[in-house]
Design brief:
The protein is α/β, with parallel strands linked by helices. Helix content is 38%, strand content 23%. Strand 2 and strand 3 form a beta hairpin.
């Protein structure tokens, strides 16, 4: 424990943040210098990179992430195998940042989500919520020689929260403004946003998952064209929106559910596709792509109007994640949110692709400082809690 005690005393730390999102396409790794903690946190990004999984490993991860598709032996192996790839990412990002592995103070690893069940379930007299992120943090710590914080979500769930989203605390530390009402929108496999009213406190923060972002688009692009995603939204821009299909998709009960709420592949994965594919016989494929792409900004604006607009009127929407590169999504967002400005977090000096990896470096720093970093109003938890497990 002496090493942790020494780390706690360091004002400035070199930290690697790691995450692989619901798309399971690779590991985002950010090497950052974090100074201070809490509201005094200062962040300097040294380098960022996404390290792709081998294609067959990605297929295996996605194939093990739905009910009835995984098995205990495969998940047991994947838990350790993914940790090895995460450890490789740490070594590689250190080389890219031109620092020695021994100079890294801490790793914050979100891991790879394979299942997320945020709704309360009553079993054997107990009420539980559950989630599973693989990529064992103890294995990462042993393979790298660097203390690792992982399994961030379960502590929040233990006190009645959904374990997600966790980015809002980071959004508050990094993007709060004295003069502007901001929405921080992340477009990964799932879309989520954080509403930060001007001059807000952390207890004022409102955030939740709004629904699918790239997940459904990517699934259709792979099914129709054997491409992992719609680069730049070019296919969507060539197609025409099918109003009937869009309305059917928007009838999903998740969109009416009040926050706190979170979602994932369990809701908007393969079981979401039959409705879309029922239109495939009579509609061009590009029109299906255009429609599921439109679903992203349409559902985000719908959720804003339902649950945020009466609290605050957004002055600007700062977008991060892979969806920021999809022109069809970004142009539609600007149309919906006008006159608010929709722009990438790059516009305020923050790299959009690196945001979530940086977040988990900061959350690891908060854990080490013994600061709670969930936002109970966001997750539904009964109380603030310190997140994660520290592995020596």
């Amino acid at each position: 424990m002496s090493r942790l005690s020494e780390l706690q005393k360091k004002r400035s730390k070199l930290i690697v943040g790691l995450i692989s999102g619901t798309s399971a396409d690779g590991i985002d790794a950010a090497l950052v210098r974090v100074t201070g903690s809490g509201i005094r946190t200062r962040i300097k990004l040294i380098t960022f990179h996404t390290f792709s999984y081998p294609a067959r490993l990605r297929d295996k991860l996605l194939g093990s992430s739905l009910p009835g598709t995984g098995s205990v032996d495969v998940l047991c192996e994947l838990n350790i195998l993914v940790a090895h790839f995460f450890a490789d990412a740490v070594r590689d990002i250190a080389r890219k940042g031109r620092v020695s592995l021994s100079s890294i103070d801490l790793i914050g690893s979100h891991g790879q989500t394979v299942h997320h069940l945020p709704a309360p379930k009553h079993i054997f007299g107990k009420t539980i919520r559950s989630t599973l992120q693989i990529g064992d943090p103890s294995t990462i710590a042993k393979l790298t020689g660097v203390p690792t914080v992982g399994d961030f979500r379960t502590a929040d769930m233990a006190v009645g929260g959904e374990g997600a989203p966790l980015v809002p605390y980071f959004d508050y530390l990094t993007f709060r403004s004295k003069t502007k009402n901001r929405i921080l929108l992340n477009l990964g496999g799932i879309a989520n946003f954080t509403a930060l009213a001007r001059n807000c406190s952390v207890s004022d923060v409102v955030a939740f998952d709004t629904g699918p972002a790239n997940m459904v688009i990517d699934a259709l692009m792979m099914k129709f064209y054997k491409r992992p995603y719609d680069a730049g939204g070019r296919m969507a821009l060539r197609g025409e929106i099918i109003p009937e299909l869009l309305l059917q998709l928007m009838s999903h009960p998740y969109f009416r559910q009040r926050p706190p709420k979170s979602t994932g592949r369990e809701t908007f994965g393969k079981m979401f596709l039959p409705t879309i594919l029922s239109f495939a016989r009579r509609c061009p494929r590009r029109n299906l792509i255009a429609t599921v792409t439109e679903l992203v900004p349409f559902s985000i604006f719908d959720q804003y109007n339902r649950f945020i607009a009466e609290r605050m009127t957004a002055d600007e929407i700062l977008v991060s994640g892979g969806g920021v590169h999809n022109r069809a999504i970004m142009e539609a967002l600007q149309d919906y949110f006008h006159p608010a400005r929709v722009k990438s977090t790059e516009s305020v000096g923050f790299p959009s692709d690196a945001k979530e990896a940086i977040c988990f470096a900061v959350l690891a720093n908060e854990t080490l400082a013994e600061h709670p970093s969930n936002v109970p109003r966001v997750t539904g938890a009964r109380q603030p809690v310190i997140l994660g497990k520290i592995c020596l």
